[in-house]
Structure formats: C-alpha cells, structure tokens
Amino acid sequence: MGKRDELFGALSARLLSFTALYDADAVLAPEAASLARALMASVPDPSRDRAAVLAIAEFYSLRALLLPVRGGDPVSPPGRRCGRR
Questions:
Q1: What is the Cα–Cα distance from 19 to 17, expressed in whole angstroms?
Q2: What are 39-57's pLDDT values in tens digits?
Q3: Closest Cα to residue 27, out of 39, 40, 41, 16?
Q4: Would you say 66 and 76 are in contact if contact means Cβ atoms under 8 Å apart?
Q5: Which of 1, 32, 46, 83 gives 20 to 30 Å between its CA and that of 72?
Q6: Are 15 and 55 in contact (CB under 8 A)?
Q7: Of 43, 55, 32, nearest to 2 (Cα)?
Q8: What is the spatial distance between Cα 60 and Cα 28, in angstroms, rounded to a whole number?
Q9: How many other C-beta atoms can be found within 10 angstroms of the C-beta atom of residue 23?
Q10: How far apart are the first and last CA of the chain?
Q11: Taking the model in full, what pTM does it have?
C-alpha cells in the first residue's frame, strides 16, 4: 500500500467516524487537517483521483459546518440565522 492509499484510508476512517458516531473531533482535530493536507499533497493529478478529491472536499465541507464563523456564530443553514426563527 502506498502513501496515498494510507492517507486516503485514514481520512476515510475519520469521515466515517464523524458520519456514523457524530464524532466532531474526527474532523476538527488539528491532526485531521494535517492528514487532509498530506493527502492533497500526495495526489499528483487531482483530475485522475476523484476518490481522494471527494474525500478532501467532504472533509473541508464538514469542517466548515462545524467550525464557528468569525464573531462566534456557528454556521447556519442557508436562509436561517442561528438563534432566530
């Protein structure tokens, strides 16, 4: 198994941990971001590695939803402000 496969497996495991167990640390931990960056760097041609690109995109999408935006408000669904109905 190559470096890319190892990194892809580790990131996929973190995504599964989040989706199955709602383990936010799986995507918010600093080492998770390092893992995603390392996977990105290990893919020589993203246009030929759809699986890796989709995993990285899903990872950063989940992080964006979980991390608070500047000012302390969590991200709201489109058309809705947090704390307001």
A1: 6
A2: 999 999 999 999 999 999 9
A3: 16
A4: no
A5: 32
A6: yes
A7: 43
A8: 10
A9: 14
A10: 50
A11: 0.78
